[in-house]
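Quick start: what a row looks like.
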Amino acid sequence: MPDALEAIRAVVGDAGLIAGEAVRARPGDWSGRTACGARAIVRPRTTAELSDVMKICSAMGQTVVPAGGLTGLAHGADAKETDIMVSFERMRAIETVDPVGMTMTVEAGVPLQAIHEAAAEHGLIYAVDLGARGSCTIGGNISTNAGGNSVIRYGMTRENVLGVEAVLADGRVISSMNAMLKNNAGFDLKQLFIGSEGALGLVTRAVVRLRPMPTSEATAMLAVRDFEALKRVFALASQRLGSLLSSFEVMWREFYELVAVESGKHTAPLPGGHGFYVIIEATGTDAARDAALVEAVLTECVEQGLAEDAVIAGSKAQRDAIWAIREESEVLIKALAPGVMFDVSLPLPHMLEFVTDMKAALAAEWGDAVRSLVYGHIGDSNLHLIVSPRPWSDAARRRVEEIVYPPLSRFGGSMSAEHGVGLEKRAWLQVSRSAEEIALMRQLKAMLDPRGLLNPGKVL
């Protein structure tokens, strides 16, 4: 496609187009262990430039793969040698912050952490937060409807984006940059692009919703004997803390012991040996009151026999140390790679049965030669699973997926809670979506991208 590349170069300039061997010098995913496989990388500076690029691509039948911070886990930004990758790394402007209306207008390439920092300057927060905050971009978050640590209180990305601007496959610009909480005028078109992984349009700008910054943060960790007690702890914490409860994270014993005890990288807040480890965090406006409320919850849990041990963070350093255990990745990669990572969701009452059945099926297949770790945002129905069978092979990976995904349908669960579908999970979409839903998805794709130019092969 030399003519297409030269036409694109005329739009974005020499600095806006990377071609040849320089493409292979760029990473293909978050791990940095693969090289970018695209034919070229286009780096537009504005929505108008990307619109012109897409008009060229549409005229020439050129496929396009959008890329943010490459932190996704579903291979949603994988590019082939026939694809052009669109990177938003030159679209990193925070355009406006409205501290009264509590909104921020940003370009798609802005890192999530930069949004957090800009909001903090005005005493506000952007409430979506996740471990990859320093690398992931708001455009990538929007494309996958990212969740994270505070969904239980603030919702996922979908609930925190008021408006978007997107470029369609034919270069048309859909600018729906709404900055109001209420706008009921017809279809809410931004929802077409949130969570669709760039398959329906390429988001270039967004208006995100900000919230008042909490002035207090009370964090605790509990050790719980069994899952029945865990459910009761969640119910009690929800009742006593109400809207102050921002996080309810759970680590199965094997996860906690590997990361907090065995790795030597962290100081364990609680000893190993318990069934489950829970992080409870409440955020509010009265430090003394909120800490007392969390302490009262812990006391009640201990008195009722629901918690076997507990600790409250007495400083920000202690709070950060607790969260560092939950957000650990380096230890997990070292211990379990290669392996399969899953993010699934299912109703809380069915989680134990699902995990128990999964572990039994894995043991029946590999005996002691398989390791599985379970953790997640239990308060919002999200489980993360890492499964590492030995010996490792593509066939072993496929067998693990056959064990994990199909049972979700029985429990009314989802094969993707917050990381999208990409290439990784598209074969399992029918586990969570009906034939009629998938058919409608295909109709939408055919209408907005009839030639299949946008992120081809992803999701569907």
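That is the whole record. The chain has four domains: 2-89, 94-212, 216-326, 337-445. The chain has a mean pLDDT of 95.
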